[in-house]
Amino acid sequence: MPKAGILQHLHVKAGPVDKVQVGLHVARNPMEERMKILTAPRMDRCIGCHSCSLACARLVHRHLSWDTAGIRISSSGGLSTGFEARTCLACLPAPCVVACPTGAYSQRRGGGVVVKKSLCIRCGECARACPVDAVYLDPAGEPFVCIHCGRCVSFCPHDCLELAELEARGEGDRLTEEGAS
Length: 181
Hints:
Elements: E1 7-14, E2 20-26, E3 36-39, H1 51-60, E4 72-75, E5 83-86, H2 95-99, E6 105-107, E7 113-115, H3 125-129, E8 136-137, E9 143-144, E10 162-165
Antiparallel strand pairs: 1-2, 3-10, 4-5, 6-7, 8-9
C-alpha cells in the first residue's frame, strides 16, 4: 500500500497552447498542501555573486543570461550597505494577472503567477503593474518572473535564500510567513 506523498500516477496530455502538460497525482497529507514561496531571510550574508540569478536563468528558463532570471540581486545603496533580493511576492490577487491583456499570466493557487509564454505579446503591462518591480523584461520584451520553484536556493553559497511554507491565504490577503505575527 503506498504511503502519503509517494507518486501514484503520471499522466501526460496535450495542452491548449502548443505545450505538453505533465501532471502528477500524488497522495498527500493535508499538511503538505501549503504553498511555498521563495524568501530571502538572511540577506545580510549576501556577497552579490548572483549565483542564484544565474541558476534560475539556466535551470528554469534555459538561458544563461542575467536578463532571463526570475530573481535579481541588487545593491541596497553601495557595497558597504549590502544587497537585496527582488522576487515575486506571490500577490493574491496578482496585479500582473489583471494587467495582462492576453491571459498569458494566470493566478497560481495560493498566490503568485503562472506564465504561458506562447500567449505573451511582450507589451510589458505585467512589469508595469508589479508593485515591487519583480517582473523582468529581457531586451526583446519577454517577461521573466519568479515561479517559487526553489531551484536557486542550493546555489547560494551563503544560505541567504529559502523556500518557506505559508499559511493558507484567501484572495486579497497579504503575504505572511508561517509563524510571523
